TrEMBL record:
<protein>
    <recommendedName>
        <fullName>Pentatricopeptide repeat-containing protein</fullName>
    </recommendedName>
</protein>
<feature type="repeat" description="PPR">
    <location>
        <begin position="337"/>
        <end position="371"/>
    </location>
</feature>
<dbReference type="InterPro" id="IPR046960">
    <property type="entry name" value="PPR_At4g14850-like_plant"/>
</dbReference>
<dbReference type="Pfam" id="PF13041">
    <property type="entry name" value="PPR_2"/>
</dbReference>
<dbReference type="InterPro" id="IPR011990">
    <property type="entry name" value="TPR-like_helical_dom_sf"/>
</dbReference>
<dbReference type="GO" id="GO:0009451">
    <property type="term" value="P:RNA modification"/>
</dbReference>
<feature type="repeat" description="PPR">
    <location>
        <begin position="204"/>
        <end position="238"/>
    </location>
</feature>
<feature type="repeat" description="PPR">
    <location>
        <begin position="473"/>
        <end position="508"/>
    </location>
</feature>
<feature type="repeat" description="PPR">
    <location>
        <begin position="438"/>
        <end position="472"/>
    </location>
</feature>
<dbReference type="GO" id="GO:0003723">
    <property type="term" value="F:RNA binding"/>
</dbReference>
<dbReference type="Pfam" id="PF20431">
    <property type="entry name" value="E_motif"/>
</dbReference>
<feature type="repeat" description="PPR">
    <location>
        <begin position="575"/>
        <end position="609"/>
    </location>
</feature>
<keyword id="KW-0677">Repeat</keyword>
<dbReference type="InterPro" id="IPR046848">
    <property type="entry name" value="E_motif"/>
</dbReference>
<dbReference type="Pfam" id="PF01535">
    <property type="entry name" value="PPR"/>
</dbReference>
<dbReference type="GO" id="GO:0005739">
    <property type="term" value="C:mitochondrion"/>
</dbReference>
<comment type="similarity">
    <text>Belongs to the PPR family. PCMP-E subfamily.</text>
</comment>
Length: 667
């Protein structure tokens, strides 16, 4: 239908922003023209003029007109882009005979608003509609792939969608292929993603960005940087800001400052806009790699900063031990968000400022910022270090109230905290209540019992884990072998060690050899331990020799101890423990002069034995004490109880380590 002349004039006026005049023109016309309405709705969509668009929609309702696929799609797009998805879906549901255009409009609306589950449900309904007017096209597939990628639905489904793409001939569409590359990358199928990328006849910048970002996010940093070099070498397409950010992230994670500086130079030469995201990536790189002067210069030169800006520099300060600088910068940010609090708490714990970390999380709550799973996972190791069981229970209760205990990392941290605070029963309860037990949870509870020398429970849980179809990893084997070492369970330890590679495909590492040497040494089977060290495929580490030295100390084998210490003095000359053990060995054998020589050697290199200290929380607060402490008023009573406990330990079969060197402690 042709436009009446007055209406044409009014529609033309919309290009100059006179929407209201156009609406008045429509009111004066008694006929409905879909083309005119479509142009006006599109105009309102482009300029987000929701109120005027609703007037247009109301006029359609006034005419008692059911919108055609054309008009309905325009309205769906309008409501989707103005965050009125419920209204968009209402329009969609009222279309009597939907076509591909209207289905895609609704799919794109969901995709635009990151409503990925709704996208997949709608796609399923679209496929089931069985209408000749409905056929999937490249827009449909692109929306579906974006949803799948966001939901990480798995590589099997990715391949099914890929087959669908091939069957329907969409593989030649660059947008579809780019989406497939992104999806495969997020499913950790980088091989398939690269195959698609290499087979593309015509790549655009998005293609390169998708592949480079895929490598960067999956940890293939060398491949990420090499592909960036190839993009520059070919020269057909220039990297943009998104490309550079992905490459800088790879440089940060691989600690490659030199390449990162080359990328920075490229940014300057190419005059790529230094927006906040790009500046943050550069600050993060320089700060992590130790070039804090460059990071600070960029930081102070930014006219606009966000929370990531502060977090990047704070993380860099913390990583390099500049705790006070990090705290000053944190205080400079008047309204820190959750991620900034988390960076500070994590950094304080990493720098052994455990009390300060606890104070900060209390301050965080007082400011009305609720700790999340990241904050809890960061602070719990500090509580473990302080053996502050009360605080551990408080955070456990907080995590239960907020449903954070379902998070695998929080649950694991709580188990570790309880175990290190001596509350193994509590650790077991957390394990029992964990839903969907993964390898990390199993390893945590096995480690808990291992640290308490309970080999029976550790081995029982290890076997239960295997029966549940959970395959162990290197950390699990370290935990269970440590339990065997504490309890002297030699035969069981050999079975586990010998099965690592043949049964589970895990090559024993130096850590595992150290555990096994510890098992044999503590059980007095020193010749077997020495034989195992000789058969090691790699050079023995200080941990391996240290395990053998402990065995020599327990058995009183002075010559073996001297042999081992000669090697340890070369590997770790600053470890006072090795000197103390050797001096003790000589003293126990009555070789006093040699014991004095070891102590003199220790003094010459500037080493001094620092007494081991522990603390315990009682009703009177945190009590600290050191080895051989006699300062407490109830010393005699304490040592009587200690002797009784040592006797019970021996009866239970626990292996006691070497005794402390009283002279070195007192000196």
């Amino acid at each position: 239908m042709w436009f009446p002349k007055p209406l044409n004039i009014q529609i033309s006026a919309t290009t100059n922003g006179y929407v209201q005049r156009a609406l008045q023109g429509l009111h004066r016309v008694d006929v409905l023209d879909c083309g005119a309405y479509g142009q006006l709705i599109q105009h309102c969509t482009d300029r987000r003029l929701l109120r005027q668009a609703k007037q247009l929609h109301a006029r359609l309702v006034l005419f008692a007109v059911v919108p055609s696929n054309f008009l309905a799609s325009k309205l769906i797009t309008l409501y989707s882009k103005t965050n009125h998805l419920r209204q968009a879906r209402k329009v969609f549901d009222q279309i009597p005979h939907k076509n591909t255009f209207s289905w895609n409009a609704m799919l794109i609306g969901y995709s635009f608003n990151n409503m990925h589950s709704d996208t997949l449900k709608l796609f399923s309904a679209m496929v089931s509609s069985c209408s000749d007017e409905v056929k999937t096209d490249n827009f449909t597939v692109t929306c579906v792939l974006k949803a799948l990628g966001a939901l990480l639905s798995g590589s099997r489904l990715a391949k099914e969608v890929h087959c669908f793409v091939l069957r329907h001939g969409f593989d030649s569409d660059v947008f579809v292929t780019n989406s497939l590359i992104t999806y495969y990358s997020r499913c950790d199928e980088l091989g398939w993603a690269r195959t698609l990328f290499d087979r593309m006849p015509d790549r655009d910048t998005v293609s390169w960005n998708s592949m480079i970002a895929g490598y960067s996010q999956a940890g293939y940093y060398a491949e990420c940087k090499e592909l960036f070099r190839e993009m520059l070498r070919l020269g057909r397409l220039r990297p943009n800001g998104l490309t550079v950010v992905s490459v800088l992230q790879a440089c940060l994670q691989s600690n490659d400052l030199i390449f990162g500086m080359e990328v920075h130079q490229f940014v300057n030469e190419s005059q790529i806009e230094m927006d906040v995201i790009l500046c943050n990536a550069l600050i993060g790189l320089y700060a992590r790699c130790g070039s804090l002067d460059y990071a600070e210069e960029l930081f102070h030169g930014m006219s606009e900063k966000d929370e990531v800006t502060y977090g990047s520099l704070i993380s860099g300060y913390m990583f390099h031990g500049f705790v006070d600088k990090a705290m000053d910068l944190f205080r400079e940010n008047k309204k820190p968000i959750l991620s900034t609090w988390n960076s500070m708490i994590s950094g304080l714990v990493q720098n052994n400022r455990h009390e300060a970390a606890l104070d900060l999380i209390r301050e965080m709550q007082a400011c009305g910022c609720k700790p999340n799973t990241v904050a809890l996972s960061s602070i719990l190791p500090a509580i473990s270090y302080l053996s502050n069981l009360k605080a551990g229970k408080e955070l456990h209760a907080y995590s239960v109230r907020n449903n954070f205990d379902a998070n695998i990392y929080v649950a694991t941290a709580i188990i570790d905290t309880y175990a290190k605070s001596g509350f193994v029963h509590g650790a077991q309860q957390v394990f029992n209540q964990s839903r969907g037990k993964s390898l990390i949870i199993w390893t945590a509870i096995i480690s808990a019992y291992a640290s308490h020398g309970d080999a029976d429970m550790a081995l029982g849980l290890f076997n239960e884990m295997l029966n549940n179809g959970i395959q162990p990893d290197q950390v699990t084997f370290t935990a269970v072998l440590t339990a065997c070492a504490h309890s002297g369970v030699v035969d069981e330890a050999w079975k586990i060690f010998d099965a690592m590679f043949p049964k589970y495909g895990i090559q024993p590492s130096v850590e595992h050899y150290a555990c096994m040497v510890g098992v044999l040494s503590r059980a007095g089977r020193l010749s077997e331990a020495i034989d195992l060290i000789h058969k090691m495929p790699v050079e023995p580490s200080a941990k391996v020799w240290g395990a053998l030295l402990n065995g020599a100390s327990v058995s009183g084998d002075v010559e073996l101890g001297k042999f081992v210490c000669d090697r340890l003095f070369q590997i770790e000359p600053d470890n006072t423990g090795n000197y103390i053990i050797m001096a003790n060995l000589y003293s126990q054998a009555g070789r006093w002069e040699e014991a004095d020589k070891v102590r003199e050697r220790m003094k010459k290199v500037g080493l001094r034995k620092i007494p081991g200290s522990s603390w315990i929380e009682t009703s009177n607060g945190l009590q600290s004490f050191i080895a051989k402490d006699t300062a407490n008023g109830r010393t005699e009573e304490i040592y009587e109880i200690l002797e009784g406990l040592l006797g019970l330990m021996k009866e239970k079969g626990y292996v006691l380590l070497d005794e402390l060197d009283e002279e070195s402690v007192n000196n």
